Amino acid sequence: MMSYGERPTVAVILSIIGGALMLLGGSMALMMLTYYDENSGMMGGYRHMMNGLGFPYGLMSGLMLVSLVSGVLLIIGAVMINIHPSQSSTWGIIVLVFSIISFLGMGGFLIGAVLGIVGGALALSWKPRPQI
C-alpha cells in the first residue's frame, strides 16, 4: 500500500501554480478586452457604427478562453496526480499537453506554461520508491 509521502509533490505544486497563473492571466486579459470593447469607438461607445473591433477582438477572446480552459485542466490534472499517483504518467501527459496549448493564450504570463511543462515532465518521470 502506498503511504501519503509517496507522491510527486513537486510536480503537483508546480502544475497548480502554473494553472493558477493561466487562470489569472486569462481572466485579466478578458477583462481588459471587455473594458476596451465597452469604452472604445466613436461617439461614446458607438463602435458598431464603424464595424468595431470585429475579428481581432473575437480572436483574442478565443485565445484567452484557451488560456482559461488550459488553466482549469492543469489544476484538475495536478489534483488527479496527487489523488492517483499510480496514474501520474497519464495525468502528466495531460498537464504537459495543455501547458503547451496554453502558449496560444500567453500561458499565464508565459511563466505559468513553463511551470506546467516542468510539472508535467516531473510527473512523467516520477516513480514510487520500491518497498523493502
Would you kindly provide a brief summary of this structure?
With 132 residues, this protein is mainly α. The protein is built from 4 helices and no strands.
Chart the SSEs and their pairings.
Elements: H1 9-38, H2 54-83, H3 88-101, H4 111-125
Structure description:
This protein is an all-alpha fold and about 130 residues long. The chain has one domain. About 65% of the residues lie in helices and about 0% in strands. The chain contains four helices and no strands. Helix 1 (about 10-40) runs antiparallel to helix 2 (about 55-85), helix 1 (about 10-40) runs antiparallel to helix 4 (about 110-125) and helix 2 (about 55-85) packs antiparallel against helix 3 (about 90-100). The model has no long low-confidence stretch (mean pLDDT about 85).
